[in-house]
What we know:
mainly beta; seven-stranded mixed sheet; globular
Amino acid sequence: MFRSLSLAGGLIWSCAAAAAGEQACQPQPGQGVKNADQSTLWLRTECPEPHTRAYIIELSEQSGGHRDRLIVEQDVEEAPWGHASLVDIDGDGMHEVEVRGACGAGPNCIGDLYRIDRGNRRLYHFFSGGYADLQVIDGHLVESGRASCCSWEFHGWRLDERPVLRDYDNMDLMAWVSASGDEEGNVAAVDCAFSRRNGDNWQTVPPPSPAWLQICQHYGQAYRLTTPEQDRQKAE
């Protein structure tokens, strides 16, 4: 049986796997990583109940004293293959914890990032979405996920020090790449477009910089870039 989950503005499908009932939480020993400011970010997995994972995230200063602690719980039956890991998503030497949850039939999985607020030295929920991959492009955190059989969406948020949750509702930029072809599966054309919110709607915009054009090369073939002028002509 399948059920739809609303993630990052689209639908991904999560299977209520029969194997989920056989899954149980497995504790994981602690691991730590040194940050650029000499603090240490620690992560371990505990099992307060057989079907509950508790990711324990701790921040300690160079002196060894703990400054902050965050517990993120996850239902094992909803995310039988869920896990957490220490990452440095933007390569700045200050690490984050990435928690992955329920996955769809395709490559998209629920994901969250927890980050250090450099101002008050606290841990906070930095990002939440549903994606296949995360990367940094031109100073933006960008999630990519399959939107349909033949198209992908990319959502971007400015990377700055605002201690707010970044999710679908406050993204700064959206891009999509769509492929069309014949019945044999050969790609005949690839279209690429970028847009920003304009009130309650989305408005086509040029790529903010040449770095963003790597998105358009997702299918590895020549692409057609939709311009604001072309979009206006379609609306007329």
